[in-house]
Amino acid sequence: MRLVVGIGLIAQGLAPLRGGLPIGPAILYGLVCAAGALLLPGLWTPVAGILATVLELWIGFSQHGDPWISILLGTLGAALALLGPGAWSIDARLFGWKRLDIHDPKR
Q1: 33-38-47 Cα angle (round to 5)
Q2: How many domains does the structure of the chain reveal?
Q3: Is 33 part of any domain?
């Protein structure tokens, strides 16, 4: 899932940058590309997912046109932030897997 979202974010961020935007929107789309580049290898996945969510929702509701691709990528970014990077990622290699043990209070 993070590969698809990362590729989608990079593709969506690069398309407007080719047209020569003013500096404000160019920074916004540059940050979208950066979030996608972080999600591809699974580096800082929770931070990159939250960044992608905020940026995509900002783009979706502030730009004219169809907002649904931005809403979809923002929702997937939030899901990645909550799920984590996965087994084959840089985060898993650096920090290892986290395991939550829920103990029964009656025991």
Answers
A1: 105
A2: 1
A3: yes
